[in-house]
Amino acid sequence: MSNSLFRKKSLTTILNDPSEPVDGHSSPELKKILGVRDLTSMGIAAVIGAGIFSTIGQAAFDGGPGVIFLFLITAVTCGFTALCYAEFASRVPVAGSAYTYSYVTFGEITAWVIGWALILEYGIGNVVVSISWSSYFVNLLEGVGMHLPTWLATDPYTAEDVYKAAVKAGSPTDGLAWTTAPLFAGYRIICNIPAFVIIILITILAFIGIRESRSSANFMVGLKLVVLAFIVGIGIFYIDTDNWTPFLPNGFTGVLKGVSAVFFAYIGFDAVSTTAEECANPQRDLPRGMIYSLIICTIIYVVVTLVITGMVNYSEFDGVADPLAYVFERINQGKIGFFISASAVVAATSVLLVFQIGQPRIWMSMSRDGLMPKRFGKIHPKFQTPGFSTVMTGVIVAIPSLFVGSALMTDLTSIGTLFAFAIVCGGVLMLPRREKTNGRFNLPYINGQWVVPVLFIIFLYSFRERVMGSVTNLTHEAHQEILFLIFLLITAVITVFSFLRKLSLIPVLGLLCCCYLMIEIPVFSWKVFFGWMAFGLAIYFSYGYWKSKLANKAKA
């Protein structure tokens, strides 16, 4: 059984047999219409969204203007991963992203786990974005004099928390969602209707076709870039350089407090790899699209952060949900702030679109391999999209968006994404090295035999107090520090292998950086994540393990 759990798909099989007939009928192919510009645009559409329009504010409050260093550090981490994705994309130019890549290198059980984890990134991640979209949309309605009842634009958990906080502070509770919501059978009816509606509309657009989705994404990306250029162009004249002093008001520790928020701002660039079968030249264009979008987004993040922290002192961003609009309101430019709020709605919409395109293609790939029912892999004869998978994605995202809060969903999204990133980086280490090929991306080999051990020693010295405290108080440690010790053990093992086998430096650094970011996520979210994984494995062993195409070939 252990051998069958790790059965692998060969590159030849994947490239020569990307699809098969469904229900006895020939399945049409996906349209191959995407080029470098389209892929870069989709990457920017996925990354430039809720992060720059919301989480950038809290990150600036924690780290001051120096939070730009965290954007650079996170970009480097994502850059390592992007290079590994690019290597896989140039070798395996089919849909499926990290799922397909892990099937080639680690085997079936790992591929299933990754595919299940990617649902957290694309599916659950869109729940978070839809909630952010709803907040901006309600603000827009308020700006034009339209008022949506508060109990129709939030989730019950957030509504209850706000109510309890108001009562504790002695503030009036009139008009809050919890007090105005109607009762039915003893329960308060509180739901986020705007979040639900936008998911339904985006799902319809993704269902209609990749050409329409591409055009919409390109338009929204263009609009976002114009808006951000406008913000920088106007805001630069209101910069007070005194606001940049001190540059690191809370030291580097304060900068690192924003890791979760900043990393979430980068989630999505890998969604480009799910559209491989719709690329005209995937071996050349996919890697370029991923790298270009990551570089452009990093430059945008750094420039915008410097502008807003120069316009308003970092200390004013605590709890500000719309920092870009806030800075213009502070300088008495309310109309510009309203315009920015409108652009934030567009930004979040483009993120929703890219993720709603990505998730169905993961399921389509899993269905082709027999791990999910054949219907998930069926291509709509008219629109040439994975129709059933797209509809199911819409249902799975839309229903939770009505009732859940964003905090836990954000952590789960980050864990699922980092987990997939780590597997991709590890998978590259298992690929056979190849000579440089014309017209295709080739990950440069840098010998990590001595570099990785030196970096490990520097890390141990820099975190010596935390290391010693964790080791000497092992039996009394909190779960978070136990995760830190597990990270040290993993790093030590990888360091030894790097020295003995001269492992490539880039994927090793990508793997270690992703693992470190994972251990900083709260333990409770890890427990939920393991529960999600257990549920996924139950599905695999009850269906996928027995229906797998590789299993059927082995029987034959």
TrEMBL record:
Lipid bilayer topology: Multi-pass membrane protein
InterPro entries the UniProt entry points to: AA/rel_permease1, CAT_C
Claim: Zinc is one of the keywords in the record: no
An annotated GO cellular component: membrane
Subcellular localization(s) per the UniProt record: Membrane
One Pfam short name: AA_permease_C
Keyword Membrane (UniProt): yes
Keywords: Membrane, Transmembrane, Transmembrane helix, Transport
Transmembrane segments: 39-61, 67-86, 185-209, 221-239, 251-269, 290-314, 336-358, 388-408, 414-431, 443-462, 482-500, 505-523, 529-546
MF (Gene Ontology): amino acid transmembrane transporter activity
Superkingdom of the source species: Bacteria
Domain Cationic amino acid transporter C-terminal: 505-548
PANTHER family, alphabetized: CATIONIC AMINO ACID TRANSPORTER 4 (PTHR43243:SF4), INNER MEMBRANE TRANSPORTER YGJI-RELATED (PTHR43243)
Name of the protein in its database record: Amino acid transporter
Protein species of origin: Chryseolinea serpens
